[in-house]
From TrEMBL:
Transmembrane segments: none annotated. It comes from the Bacteria. Keywords: Heme, Hydrogen peroxide, Iron, Metal-binding, Oxidoreductase, Peroxidase. This is Catalase. The keyword Oxidoreductase applies. Residues 1-65 are annotated as: Disordered.
Length: 709
């Protein structure tokens, strides 16, 4: 990972659009008033119309105790603008965090695609990425159990390409027509307005239990993938099968994958719940702080490329978004790396107003007949009008292409382009008279749709049907479950048990159990036992469930990267702590790529064995759930005192319960004992073995600390 100062260099967040027709120009408001980063006239407060304000403390009144005057345009404008600050939040994915960055091609693939970002090794393309939860509102917390959105806008030389994916490679439904039902069911219940940002309630599981096609996605959503440690430690997927088309017009199918350079990591469920209280902005803060300190998060972009012949040979339909292609069957080829290197200057202007559209493709990228994708092509354009209020949302800086754009679309609300001349239609012959006739279509280089239809599509009749192979709803759900390690299987069974325990409608639980039997008998039995329910008969399945070869690539734990890179270690200290031990821990952690955060009962400065130290955080506000490992640098006296402080005991108990490394000075023993810490590989002294242990989680410890389903 590149490390260099990152703070908001002003590179390219403004549109370079040169026009909207013939001769046009755009007067960006930010240029007229305050330029990005360097306001032109910071000294003087003005109204929106540029009139200097003499008094921003008192409104205009008739006498010192009289009524406020309608004439006070300064007051009226200020309150009027404030009253209208809010825009509708996204109907899904409302809570999100974004950043700017760059995509660099590491392997040119002109034989596969003519898309501009992939034409030359080393080619850089500006990007904006936004990560989100799905169900919660914009002000909800960062760590609920939920799918995460993973949307990337590539500002390519030939227009914007938006790869609007998730951190899970499959989806709940196969056909876009079911999306409103799915989302209504998972959002807060219509009559009572709760629960917020949670799937553990009646209506969601009612819908799921009636939609067997959701079973594969449910396995993912109930797995540790849905409680990521950091947005920087998640994979991303394009989900659908797309097409790549080369300059000769030859097309191949492709699936997109993002692989985090920091490796994947998740939290424990109990930890995720506690983080929600300790720091509702846990993921947003983590992303912002990492970029701000020059620890730029990065992901490799990988492709699974295949042709019709491969597609036809699979036991599932590649147009079905509830199916994946195991990496072991079709390896992923890495073609580039995305590095996020610049935080937004303004959350609303950029992250909130970012409009991603799966229909934004560029020459060289095309769609397929996936019925889920086809529905999305309509929805996203439509939703921007209702959210951003105008068809001119593409002129907002974060959405504007960096390459020139010219066309004859005109006017509309909030038009900021200023087209000149008469040419606002085409064809025209104005150029023959020496006038600017405006742009023309470009048959050679313009976007052309890949015309060949999938051979297996007869295409002649209009039908409301699903293709036959879409009927297998369980084989890949089974594949996912059986590809997990034992601890991950236990987490998954426990997550379903927990969620169903929140479902008051008993027939819904029973129906879901009947589906789980088709996924895996043992899983169904474990959930039933966890709920103390009888196992019902298996639900009838529309197609035969096949046992696919396990795909170890689907496990987080089996592929864990043991590193302190991007991880944060807490050092708990108090009166008399050994200054040398604190700095030794700090340097070992930093040497291994991690960062340290000091925690003490008081923040203002505590006397150590030598000198004093101000803590980064106060104990009560810095619980161990916010860190990847903890070091306890305490004297016996301080540890004894802290055994009577609940926050300190909980700090250690949670670190142990969340399977983290605990490094402890000899003096810390009383606190370890009070917190019920038992010696194991993850409980170390403060030497080199601590820095090594801190890079891991200790899943072997789990049976000692919780009863899993
Ligand atoms: Fe979305 N989705 N979606 N979705 N989606 C939206 O668009 C929709 C689907 C995804 O950071 C909305 O601008 C339909 C799959 C992300 O701004 C909306 C269907 C995948 C984001 C919409 C799907 C996604 C959205 C709401 C079924 C993964 C956030 C606001 C056909 C491949 C993007 C907006 C951001 C947002 C519709 C299914 C990912 C309403 C109709 C599958 C990451 O247009």
């Amino acid at each position: 990972m590149a490390k260099s100062p990152s703070r908001n260099s002003s590179a390219g967040a403004r549109p370079t659009a040169t026009g909207n027709g013939g001769e046009t120009h755009q007067q960006a408001p930010m240029e007229r008033g305050a330029k990005r980063g360097e306001p032109q006239d910071t000294a003087h407060l003005t109204t929106n119309h540029g009139v200097r304000i003499s008094d921003n403390q008192n409104s205009l009144r008739a006498g010192s105790r009289g009524p406020t005057l309608l004439e006070d345009f300064v007051l009226r404008e200020k309150i009027f603008h404030f009253d209208h600050e809010r825009i509708p939040e996204r109907i899904v994915h409302a809570r999100g965090s974004g950043a700017h960055g760059v995509f660099e091609c590491t392997r040119a693939i002109p034989e596969l695609t003519k898309a501009a970002p992939f034409q030359a090794k080393g080619k850089q393309t500006e990007v904006f990425a936004r990560f989100s939860t799905v169900a919660g509102g914009a002000g909800s917390v960062d760590t609920p159990r939920d799918v995460r959105g993973f949307a990337v806008k590539f500002y390519t030389d030939e227009g914007n390409w938006d790869l609007v994916g998730n951190n899970i490679p499959v989806f709940f439904i196969q056909d876009a027509i079911k999306f409103p039902d799915l989302i209504h069911s998972v959002k807060m219940e219509a009559d009572r307005g709760y629960p917020q940002a949670a799937s553990a309630h009646d209506t969601f599981w009612d819908f799921i239990s009636l939609m067997p096609e959701s079973m594969h996605m449910i396995m993912w959503a109930m797995s540790d993938r849905a409680i990521p440690r950091s947005l920087r430690m998640m994979e991303g997927f394009g989900v659908h099968t797309f097409r790549m088309v080369n300059a000769k017009g030859e097309g191949k199918f492709v699936k997109f994958h993002w692989k985090p350079v920091l490796g994947m990591q998740s939290t424990c469920w109990d930890e995720a719940v506690k983080i929600a209280g300790a720091d509702p902005d846990f993921h947003r803060r983590d992303l912002f702080e990492a970029i701000d300190s020059g620890n730029f998060p990065a992901w490799d972009l990988g492709l699974q490329v295949f042709d019709e012949e491969f597609a036809a040979a699979q036991p599932y339909d590649v147009l079905d978004a509830t199916k994946l292609i195991p990496e072991e069957v079709l390896p992923i080829q890495i073609v580039g790396r995305m590095t996020l290197n610049r935080n937004v200057d303004n959350f609303f202007a950029e992250t909130e107003q970012a409009a991603f559209l799966p229909s934004n493709v560029v020459p060289g990228i095309d769609f397929t007949n996936d019925p889920l994708l086809q529905g999305r092509l309509f929805s996203y354009l439509d939703t921007q009008k209702s959210r951003l209020g105008t068809t001119n949302f593409h002129q907002i800086p974060v959405n504007a292409p960096r390459c020139p754009m010219h066309n004859f679309q005109r006017d509309g609300m909030m038009q900021t382009m200023v087209p000149t001349g008469r040419a606002n239609y085409e064809p025209n012959s104005l150029a023959d008279n020496g006038e600017n006739g405006g742009p023309r279509e470009c048959p050679e280089t313009g976007f052309t749709t890949f015309t060949a239809n999938d051979e297996r599509n007869d295409g002649s009749e209009k039908l409301r049907v699903r293709a036959e192979l879409f009927a297998d709803h369980y084989s890949q759900a089974r594949l996912f479950f059986r590809s997990q390690t034992a601890p991950e299987q236990a987490h998954l069974a426990s997550a379903i048990t927990f969620e169903l325990s929140k479902v008051a409608l008993e027939p819904v639980r029973t129906r879901l159990l009947s589906r789980l039997r088709n996924v895996d008998e043992e899983l169904a039995a474990r959930v039933a036992a966890g709920l103390a329910m009888e196992l019902p008969a298996a639900a009838p399945a529309a197609a035969k469930t096949v046992d696919m070869d396990a795909s170890p690539a689907l496990s987080i734990i089996a592929n864990a990267k043991h590193t302190l890179d991007g991880r944060k270690v807490a050092i708990l200290f108090d009166e008399g702590s050994d200054a040398g031990e604190i700095s030794a821990v700090r340097s070992a952690v930093e040497k291994a790529g991690g960062t340290c955060f000091t925690v003490a009962p008081k923040v203002g400065g505590i006397a150590l064995s030598k000198g004093t130290l101000k803590a980064d955080g106060q104990l009560a506000g810095s619980p161990s759930v916010l860190f990847d490992a903890v070091a306890l640098v305490l004297t016996a006296e301080a540890a004894g005192k802290l055994t009577r402080e609940g926050a300190a005991v909980q700090f250690v108990m949670d670190a142990f319960g969340h399977l983290k490394a605990i490094g402890a000075s000899d003096g810390a023993k009383a606190l370890l004992d009070k917190a019920g810490v038992e010696k194991d590989e993850g409980v170390t002294g403060l030497g080199a073995d601590f820095a090594k242990a801190a890079a891991m989680r200790f899943y072997d410890r789990e049976p000692k600390v919780r009863m899993l389903a």
